[in-house]
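Risk mitigation, structural track. In case the binding assays with zinc ion fail to produce interpretable data, a predicted complex structure has been prepared as a fallback.
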Amino acid sequence: MYWEQLTTRRFAEEMPAVHTVLLPTGTVEAHGLHCPLGTDNYHPAALASRLEARHPERLLVAPAIPYGHSWELEEWPGTLSIPAEAFQQYVAVVGLSMLRWGMRDIVIINGHGGNTGALSHAAEAIADAGGRVVITNWWLDFSQEIRTVTGGQGHAGEDETSVMLALHPTWVEMDHAVFNPKRPKYRVKDRPHRQVTLRNAVTGDGRAGTSEKGERILNLVVDGLDALLGDLWSGELFEPAAP
Ligand SMILES: [Zn+2]
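Fallback model:
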């Protein structure tokens, strides 16, 4: 079910049986010269809708939070960046509002790396109010699986480009896709550094993307997220640690 599609009457009727909400988060920022500015919003939206299709009675998909924190690419035309604090507080209060209507588990389907620090703090605020939050970053959480499909990963790189091609092929301009031959050795933050790390607003190799790879990645990630939901619902949230 989709939060926004329900009437208040149906919401009240359905809610006693639904305790898990998917909250997509992303950003609007440059993705190479070839992928759309909303790439980080379209990916979570697709993942959420495929998960909803598997569990329509048990999952509620919330409206996405499409504005994120995009310091790294704020200089590129079309990027919309909000401060991390504003994003953090917005996510936290949206989550608190969801708890009020009986949601227990808030599964964040995040599409943007720049959001991750703020999401972690927002999740803590929601947890303090009694919620349980799972933050998912598809390209990191399922990196091992994704690398069975692609040679590499990156911002507007092979994996992101592939998924975009699978979802909206006509919005991708593959003749403008490029490879960034450099990647950072350390977690350095300064403006000249980000211009090299994100030369042409790319990390990795956007040229290697295909829609066929994108569909395979989507299936692997949806399977992984579906397994996560199963574990969440059965309480299997731990695994044996290596000594
Ligand atoms: Zn992205």
